[in-house]
Automatic annotation (TrEMBL):
Subcellular location: Cell membrane
UniProt region (Disordered), positions on chain: 462-481
Organism, as annotated: Vigna angularis var. angularis
Signal peptide extent: 1-18
Family indicated by similarity: Belongs to the peptidase A1 family.
Record's keyword terms, sorted: Aspartyl protease, Cell membrane, Glycoprotein, GPI-anchor, Hydrolase, Lipoprotein, Membrane, Protease, Signal
Biased composition (Low complexity): 462-477
GO MF, one annotated term: aspartic-type endopeptidase activity
Topology within the bilayer: Lipid-anchor; GPI-anchor
Peptidase A1 domain segment(s): 105-452
Keyword match Cell wall biogenesis/degradation: no
Stated name of the protein: Peptidase A1 domain-containing protein
GO cellular component annotations of the record: plasma membrane; side of membrane
Lineage, top ranks: Eukaryota, Viridiplantae, Streptophyta, Embryophyta, Tracheophyta
Membrane-traversing stretches: none
């Protein structure tokens, strides 16, 4: 049916934002950098004046030098986690099926005993892992309905897994205790995503996630990790239309997310990486801290807390020109198909792009992409490279700055768009289209986002000597967690916000973050009529 209408593009955003009813995921972890202001306050409260005197000013060269020294020290110590890196037992390969599964990136994971496999969407913008289960309302899981899968997807049935247990209401990771009768009751969850009516709800379970490690002696070790997953009994909205039909693997900073639980259990470093291949095939690796030589930039706290993978760009560069006054914050979001810039930055970027590109601008009606072009295939098209500049001369070059996926009716010309849309939010969202071709490291321990070019395939490059970037955790006494953290209790965060809608997204700086999934459908009818609908 989709094909009869024409090319159907799904634009999907998954980001951590506040909305009512998403109480199940308002966990925020208390990762505090050992030289952070918070750790400083904590130390002060313990009356260690001598430590305070030697505390470096934030962002001073001394601070950076100390950071570096502590990393080196940790690499020498080589204590800590049991495994260098772990990946899902089916290999950790990720897949993108384009349109059909909404431009998201997926991986097969195995859960339970005996194990059952699920094709989950990878989402750095939310914390919860949920899979369809004991269904009241779930999407179709038959491969035949999607055309791109070689096997059916599965349901989770807790009663068939002998390692499955209800998470009790009294458990500290149960976020919706207010709707429990007693501490032994099963803990319910309900996650509301940004798209209207797009939710998953059910009960939380503990079970085993099957992982593998290449081990130090080459043979593959299998590892079973206890994780918490949502038994998604009822999905609504886009989840019934074909977006991530077999569940979502939330990779956010929250305590309930799989990377958080693996690190807490001491199985891996508190870090993971995703590589989204330019070939539709990528890789996810838990515990990966990347290369020492990778580019990196710090994660920015939101209200003093590390609740989303937010970083700060100094400038957006078009061609050789790094635009003035284009400093902005951006969310790194593997679960977003395309890229969104705050209005002011957007205006500057598109005008400069338009100035530099050598092709005729055309209007594709009703798309949120305003800068689309028609170039005859005879012309040599000059597309200016696009990159982000971060502090300390760190840059991220977008490997493929334009979108050319339109089914052009004739061969004589090419239609392409600058796949960036404006947003009223005060921060940008960098989606998977601009993250491809990099090993993206979410180093939660050192609170840094790192990146380096990688084809996502060549595993040998992971184990090469240049991979000195697997430092071990600080000794426990340096892993400060701050008392009196200003964490907003989930229930309060939920009730404080108005009705969930895209409009509440602007509240990011005022509330703690929860998952939010904004799904846009981009329909291309015939060659040049495009509709973008965000629900
Ligand atoms: C997350 O875990 C840390 C350490 O285990 C704890 O101090 C913190 O309170 C937790 N955060 C939430 C929101 O539960
Ligand atoms: C105070 O800080 C100093 C310097 O970092 C350290 O050597 C000392 O052990 C600390 N004392 C206490 C009581 O934590
Ligand atoms: C850190 O210092 C550099 C150079 O002094 C400056 O350009 C940058 O904006 C500072 N970053 C922060 C987060 O303060
Ligand atoms: C769980 O099931 C597996 C096989 O599916 C079996 O090997 C194992 O002994 C069972 N464990 C328990 C505790 O029943
Ligand atoms: C999953 O189960 C199948 C058989 O049911 C088995 O061959 C495979 O090794 C299991 N995978 C893991 C990671 O335990
Ligand atoms: C969401 O649900 C409400 C009530 O069920 C309905 O009125 C509204 O049209 C739905 N929105 C979308 C985009 O489906
Ligand atoms: C693109 O340009 C070619 C030749 O200049 C023209 O034939 C074609 O209709 C144009 N297509 C669109 C969508 O504007
Ligand atoms: C950044 O790069 C410029 C030019 O390449 C150079 O002049 C400057 O010293 C560099 N700054 C830092 C902090 O490395
Ligand atoms: C992409 O796939 C093609 C064919 O399967 C292969 O030749 C090429 O090396 C791949 N590129 C990358 C970057 O993996």
């Amino acid at each position: 049916m989709f094909m009869a209408i024409g090319l159907l593009l799904w634009l999907l955003l998954a980001k951590g934002l506040t909305s009512e009813g998403s109480l199940g995921v308002t966990f925020s972890s208390r990762l505090v950098h050992s030289f952070s202001e918070e750790a400083k306050v904590h130390l002060a409260s313990r009356g260690n004046g001598s430590a305070l005197q030697s505390w470096p000013e934030r962002n001073s060269s001394e601070y950076l030098r100390l950071l570096l020294r502590s990393d080196v020290t940790r690499q020498r110590m080589r204590l800590g986690s049991q495994y260098e890196t772990l990946y899902p037992s089916e290999g950790g390969q990720t897949f993108s099926f384009g349109n059909v599964l909404y431009w998201l990136h997926y991986a097969w994971i195995d859960i339970g005993t005996p194990n059952v496999s699920f094709l989950v969407a990878l989402d750095a913008g939310s914390d919860m892992l949920w899979v369809p289960c004991d269904c009241i309302e779930c999407a179709s899981l038959s491969a035949g309905n999607y055309n791109v899968l070689d096997r059916d997807m599965n349901l989770y049935t807790p009663s068939l897994s002998n390692t499955s247990r209800h998470l009790p209401c009294g458990h500290k990771l149960c976020g919706e205790q207010s709707s429990c009768k007693g501490p032994k009751d099963p803990c319910p969850y309900s996650v509301q995503y940004a798209s209207d009516n797009t939710t998953s709800s059910g009960f939380l379970f503990e079970d085993k996630l099957h992982l593998a490690s290449d081990g130090r002696h080459t043979e593959q070790n299998s590892v079973q990790a206890s994780i918490i997953l949502g038994c998604g009994r009822k999905q609504t909205g886009e989840y019934l239309e074909g977006a991530s039909p077999d569940g979502v693997l939330g990779l956010g900073p929250g305590n309930i997310s799989v990377p958080s639980l693996l690190a807490k259990a001491g199985l891996t470093q508190n870090s993971f990486s995703i590589c989204l291949g330019e070939n539709e095939s990528g890789r996810i690796i838990f515990g990966d801290q990347g290369y020492v030589t990778q580019h990196s930039t710090p994660f920015l706290p939101i209200n003093g807390e590390f609740t989303a993978y937010m970083v700060g760009a100094e400038s957006f560069c078009v061609g050789n020109l790094c635009l003035k006054e284009t400093r902005f914050q951006l969310l790194i979001d593997s679960g977003s198909s395309f890229t969104f810039l705050p209005n002011e930055v957007y205006q500057k970027v598109v005008l400069e792009f338009d100035k530099q590109v050598s092709a005729t601008r055309i209007i594709l009606s009703q798309t949120s992409w305003d800068y689309c072009y028609n170039a005859s295939s005879q012309e040599l098209i000059n597309i200016p490279p696009l990159k982000l500049a971060f502090s300390r001369n760190q840059t991220l070059l977008f490997q493929n700055p334009i979108f050319t996926g339109f089914a052009s009716p004739e061969k004589e010309y090419t239609l392409f768009c600058l796949p960036i849309a404006p947003t009223d939010y005060e921060y940008a969202t960098i989606g998977q289209n601009y993250l491809m071709g990099y090993r993206m490291v979410f180093d939660r321990e050192n609170l840094r986002f790192g990146w380096s070019r990688w084809n996502c395939q060549d595993k040998a490059s992971l184990a090469s000597p240049s991979n000195g970037g697997s430092p071990n955790p600080l000794p426990a006494n340096q892993q400060q967690s701050v008392p009196n953290a200003r964490a907003v209790p989930p229930a309060i965060a939920g009730h404080a916000s108005a009705k969930p809608s895209a409009a509440t997204a602007g509240l990011i700086s005022k509330h703690s973050l929860v998952s939010m999934l904004l799904i846009c459908h981009l329909w291309l009818l015939s060659c040049c009529e495009v509709y973008l609908i965000c629900v």
